[in-house]
Amino acid sequence: MAILVTGGAGYIGSHVCVSLLNAGFDVIIVDNFNNSYPEVLHRIENITGRTPINMPCDIRDRMMIEKILKNHGCTSVIHLAGLKAVAESAGCPLFYYDCNVVGTLILLQAMQSIRVKNLIFSSTAMVYGLPEYLPYDEKHPLVPENVYGRTKLIIEKMMADLYTADPEWSFTILRYFNPVGAHESGLIGEDPKGIPNNLMPIISQVASGRRKKLTIWGDNYKTKDGTGIRDYIHVVDLANGHIAALKMMEKPGVHLFNLGCGKGFSVLDVIGAFEHVSNRPVPYIIGPRRPGDIAEFFTNSEMARKELGWEAKRDLHQICADMWNFQVKNPQGYRQKES
Ligand code: NAD
Ligand code: UDP
Q1: How far is the CA of 146 from the centre of ligand 2 (A)?
Q2: Residue 335: pLDDT above 90?
Q3: 113-131: average pLDDT
């Protein structure tokens, strides 16, 4: 079976491609390299011994997407391409609506015209907004707090409307919690362009000396140590969740799953675990709260366990160890291997 993976060169996408290739699927990657490097394709090949087909293109290029779906006989799409920085989304909303919402609309139009009606979508815990209760389950109210989360919610609703109009469609919507870690080989991992926004890549760069210190955004939340609490999930567990989700493709409908590990860790927990694993200090200062931040959230992945037979297996120690391995082997990220 040939699977088209949009955003397949990105952080999560590259791990999804490895899981797909290892499971015997053929993989066609569509990526515009807006936030990734072509070097990642060689790394995927090194890990799996198989070559994904690379189609450098934007998801908004409908003619090209139709051609790719048709020429490669794709049966399903895993849709990860998109923009994901919360703060940036507030400053450039149209950029986000265009890439995420319009991009998905055009992708769906292309799929519909070629009659490929199976899609797995990367959504986010951000669609829930302020917790009315924890852990979040899939029935929690959906009131996103930021532009990024709203783009994802609009896409989810677009998919539900399309299914209502045409019940041949199968949508599996995966709401990711906080993906972290790297492949155990140290060949692929997270290497965002510019200064990272997320906690784990910054910690890793501080431990390695690439950055001097970390700012903890607030230590006066009503949490056990005052710092923010999140549900960190190893990216390989997350990638394997997509293989489990391919099972749902047999069933038309809109299937929704939270993918997380079901436990919350504070910023100080994560710093402590990383220092322990790397045996390096992670200097930090306390700064003000980050606008729009939520004190605490984590999930209940019961639904994924029951219906997909999936659960996260790797713990925080493994996450830090794999992240550190990637950092040590790639001190400047993928760039050192470019050109
Ligand atoms: P990433 O930036 O590493 O990967 C996204 C990939 O999509 C990049 O390779 C980028 O070049 C590509 N891309 C972006 N816009 C494109 C377009 N218009 N056409 C073609 N390619 C395009 O991000 P990631 O962390 O791997 O996230 C993947 C998906 O998962 C995103 O949709 C993101 O919203 C979602 N998600 C991520 C997180 C997280 O914390 N990393 C959490 C929840 C959900
Ligand atoms: N965080 C922090 N300093 C940073 C980046 C993040 O203290 O430089 C905190 C942030 O306030 C939150 C947690 O780390 O409590 C996870 O943040 P991240 O951006 O990784 O995930 P998100 O908030 O998007 O779930």
Answers
A1: 15
A2: no
A3: 97
Q: What percent of the chain has pLDDT over 90?
A: 91
- Looking at all shown ligands, the one closest to residue 286's CA atom is 2
* pLDDT (tens digit per residue) in 85-95: 888 999 999 99
Count Cβ atoms below 10 Å from residue 139 Cβ, excluding itself.
8
Contact present, 174 and 235 (Cβ < 8 Å): no
Per-residue pLDDT reduced to its tens digit, 22-31: 999 999 999 9
What the block records as the tokens of 336 is: 């050192």
Q: Ligand 1 centre from 84 Cα, in Å? A: 6
91-122 b/e with 16+ CB inside 10 Å = b? eeeeebbebbbebbbbbbebbeeeebbbbbbb
- What's the rounded Cα separation, in Å, for the pair 181 and 88? 23
CB distance 331 to 207 below 8 Å: no
pLDDT value of position 339 = 37
- 95 token code pair: 């950029």
What angle do helix axes 316-329 and 267-278 make, rounded to 10 degrees? 60
Residue minimizing CA distance to atom 11 of ligand 2:
217
Ligand 1 center to 220 CA (angstroms): 31
User: How many Å apart are CA 247 and CA 245, to the nearest integer?
Assistant: 5
Q: What is the dihedral of CA 111, 115, 120, 122, to 10 degrees?
A: 10
Which of 29, 31, 58 has the most ligand 1 atoms within 8 A of CB, as the residue to mutate? 31
From the CB of 36, is ligand 1 less than 6 Å away? yes
Closest ligand to C-alpha of residue 258 is 1
Contact (Cβ atoms closer than 8 angstroms) between residue 261 and residue 232: yes
6, 34, 60, 175: which to mutate for ligand 1, most atoms within 8 A of CB?
34
Residue with tokens 């952080």: 11
